[in-house]
Design brief:
This protein is of the alpha+beta class. The protein has 20 helices and 28 strands.
Length: 779
């Protein structure tokens, strides 16, 4: 493939060969001499006072070298940080080990360190904990209304840990003048990301001067280093954090967990390496959950179906503690509720509440899927009850390119003001309708009816926050043979980001991509970085890397000018060479060799070596958009549901690699399908998890996906990024939840059923909805 022409082409992922050949190196693959193994004793109660922890039997167990409980660490190990939360709610932050009280099944109560994993687990079973049970608070609305003595954190005086307000325009006047008002309560259920690799850590204290290296399955190693230093009272320079290959993250590894702290603390205290690998059973109770929210939404509409105002009162069930990113889901869902629609008046109050469930945090989409679900189901209801075509209703309410940039008047915690930068939402809708064969929907419905099926088609139009800051680091270095190493502060975990970054750098230097190596995930290799989340890896990490490569190219021209006895301004950079008007040239390799400290410093330079670093600071949020259209068939006799067609058009600005973008979108659709049709974390009335493994937590398989997904793309470049890029990692999930739910709603609407949730639409649930409609008709 020609150098300088890679951006926008489907370059095969360069990460895959070593993964497919089994050459990946995950935390589980790493071992060091004299390694101890950690096992956690976890609470078996949802809400209880700890009356006693008896570890006498443990200390005598074979291979045990240390056992520790929360009270021993209370004065030396701080609470885990919550970076999007401020004020009194910080009292709900995670403790490394429970002190005095447990608040969810799975909360760490004690840690065992032994010579082998078997010995650690056997010893953990010997710990005897005496509890005095307290009433469990599980229901989201009940938690918000609960008063003493049924509080999780008595010092707060409430189970509400944070409230987000959004206020735009004159809402009361708009409702007073409304032709009709539509009101619904939408419920989004709880589920959890299921990456192939569970979490794992290995803390090694055998570095020089006791410096500790932590290998951890994380999406942000640099932030883990900072958090560890703060919690343990250490200097960041005494910590080296490495994220090796990470087998999927999806947001749950964009968190800082007690196990990371415990491993480092123990490695330091015992002067031996400490390793812990999460079991899949632990994952269901110890890794953050996602999604669970309740939204009470009202919409004011005029005679033409124009939505003039919306109000939102929402509750997010944050589980038992404030995680690293605890109120982001509530903030995003409230700030982004109106999506691509004008809706000039808006008021929202969004509360985050604690309950006796596993803590909840971000998961692919982080609040966007909930917002899109509520808005799109509301749009469908308005269209249905006012007799307006639902596509036409959307078009009437939709922002246009002439409205850009569009200040929405809302704000997202950590990210800032919501100002849509660019996008043509109407064109996205039009292209998706064409891909989906919208004009044939009546024929499809008749065919389904002849076969005894109910056909439903759902539409989801979305705008999502991507490529958030505050910055990312790129470092590009050229060696004496012309090989280029790119160091990025982004920390990819399967998205193809390294390939995309290599494409950007190859284009900037006009060299073959095979000459480029991308390194990441190591705080010693690149000391400064942020990480990978919020669809920022390619757009922000890639921009920083390309800007660094540009500086390298500019520096190379200065060096080459001396070599070729020309002025830098007279040189032309082409195909990895500096070329003079007289035909003389210098290759990247020869320029790099000249720039080393073995030679005198070329005039006009202030540093040796062909190596440059760049920090790209983000001036604002880049907003991607998409339209999803889903077709389902439901068997009213059994409740069985099949997704029979799917079309999506995604706009992430300048596309680096269309194959990677398409893969991200389709993968996101699979996760949205899993959440709406199968996946659910359930508890009994006492707060005991009823979902304990893949035996009762179903994931989608290839057989559950639609046979074909028709995908298209648009490119409306972002003015906030020097290369026009936006994020592409989460839109597939964000749109599919609403599109699938909307399709179910459309299929059941003729029966008089109104869908106000995201499922999961299992056969028993669907059959129950069909039967309830039949009973209503009979009555």
């Amino acid at each position: 493939m020609a150098a300088g022409r890679l951006v926008g082409t489907p370059v095969p992922r360069r990460e895959d060969k070593r993964l497919l050949l089994g050459q990946a190196r995950f935390v589980a693959d790493i071992s060091v001499p004299r390694m101890l193994h950690m096992a956690l004793v976890r609470s078996t109660k949802a809400h209880a006072m700890i009356e006693n922890i008896d570890v006498a039997k443990v200390l005598a167990a074979p291979g045990v070298r240390r056992v520790v409980i929360g009270s021993e660490l209370a004065d030396t190990v701080g609470a885990l940080p919550s970076i999007d939360l401020a004020g009194p709610g910080l009292a709900a932050c995670y403790r490394v080990l429970a002190i005095g009280k447990v608040r969810y099944v799975g909360e760490p109560v004690a840690a065992i360190f032994a010579e082998t994993p078997f010995q650690a687990n056997e010893a953990a079973a010997l710990v005897e904990v005496t509890y005095r049970e307290l009433p469990a608070v599980l229901d989201t609305e009940q938690a918000a209304a609960t008063k003493p003595p049924s509080l999780l954190y008595e010092a707060l005086g409430s189970n509400v840990i944070h409230t987000v307000h959004q206020n735009v325009g004159d809402v009361d006047a708009a409702f007073a003048a409304a032709h009709r008002v539509f009101e619904d309560t939408y419920r989004i259920h709880r589920y959890v990301a299921s990456p192939m690799e569970t979490r794992g850590v290995l803390a090694d204290p055998t570095g020089r001067a006791g410096r500790i290296t932590l290998y951890t399955s994380t999406q942000f190693p640099h932030l883990v280093r900072a958090f560890l230093a703060a919690v343990l009272g250490m200097a960041e320079t005494d910590l080296h954090v490495v994220a090796p290959d990470v087998g999927g993250g999806f947001g749950v590894k964009c968190e800082f967990y007690p196990e990371e702290v415990l491993a480092v603390w123990a490695a330091k205290a015992l002067e031996r390496p400490v390793k812990w690998l999460e079991t899949r059973a632990e994952h269901f109770v110890a890794t953050t959950h996602a999604r669970e929210q309740v939204h009470r939404m009202r919409a004011a509409v005029d005679e033409d179906g124009i939505v003039t105002a919306v109000t939102l009162e929402s509750l997010t069930n944050n589980g038992a503690a404030a995680a690293t990113l605890s109120v982001t889901p509530a903030s995003i869902s409230s700030a982004m509720l109106r999506g691509p629609y004008r809706i000039p008046n808006y008021r929202a109050k969004s509360e985050s509440v604690v309950t006796n469930k596993t803590p909840l945090a971000v998961y692919r989409g982080a609040g966007h899927p909930q917002a899109v679900l509520c808005m799109e189901l509301t749009m469908d209801r308005i269209a249905r009850e006012m007799g307006v075509d639902r596509v036409e209703l959307r078009r009437r309410n939709m922002l246009t390119p002439a409205d850009m940039p569009s200040d929405r008047g809302t704000e997202i915690v950590l990210a800032g003001k919501v100002i849509y930068d660019s996008g043509d939402y109407g064109e996205s809708l039009a292209r998706a309708l064409e891909l989906a064969g919208w004009s044939k929907r009546d024929e499809l419905a008749e065919d389904a009816k002849r076969r005894g099926k109910l056909l439903g088609i759902g539409i989801a139009c979305l705008v999502e926050e991507t490529a958030i800051g505050p910055y990312e680091t790129g470092d590009v270095r050229v060696d004496g043979v012309g090989k280029v190493t790119v160091f990025t502060g982004a920390s990819p975990h399967g998205q193809g980001t390294a390939t995309a970054i290599a494409q950007l750098v190859a284009d900037e230097l006009e060299i073959d991509i095979d000459r480029i190596v991308v390194r990441h995930g190591d705080t010693d290799v690149i000391p400064d970085g942020v990480g990978t989340f919020a669809s920022r890896g390619g757009a922000i990490g890639g921009a920083a890397a390309r800007l660094a490569a540009r500086k390298v190219r500019e520096k190379a021209l200065i060096v080459a000018a001396e070599m070729l006895q020309a002025s830098p301004g007279d040189l032309v950079w082409s195909e990895g060479e500096a070329r003079a008007p007289n035909g003389a040239s210098a290759t990247l390799a020869t320029i790099a060799a000249r720039a080393t400290a073995w030679n005198s410093m070329p005039k006009g330079l202030s540093s040796f070596n062909l190596a440059e670093e760049s920090h790209f600071q983000v001036p604002g949020i880049a907003f991607a958009n998409a339209t999803h259209i889903c077709q389902v068939e439901i068997d009213p006799e059994t409740g069985e549901l099949n997704v029979t067609g799917y079309a999506v058009v995604h706009d992430c600005g300048t596309v680096i690699n269309p194959m990677i973008v398409e893969g991200q979108v389709i993968g996101g659709i699979a996760q949205g399908l899993g959440g709406t049709l199968f996946e659910e974390i359930r508890y009994d009335e006492a707060g005991q998890p009823l979902t304990q493994g893949f035996g009762d937590y179903l994931l989608p398989t290839a057989a559950d996906m639609p046979r074909t997904i028709r995908s298209g793309s648009m490119q409306t470049p972002s003015p906030l990024n020097p290369f026009g890029m936006k994020g592409a990692g989460e839109g597939g999930t964000t749109g599919s939840v609403a599109a699938i739910s909307g399709a179910v709603a459309d299929a059941l609407a003729p029966l008089g059923v109104r869908v106000t949730s995201d499922g999961p639409f299992t056969p028993p649930l669907v059959l129950g909805l069909v039967k309830s409609a039949a009973r209503t008709v009979a009555a």
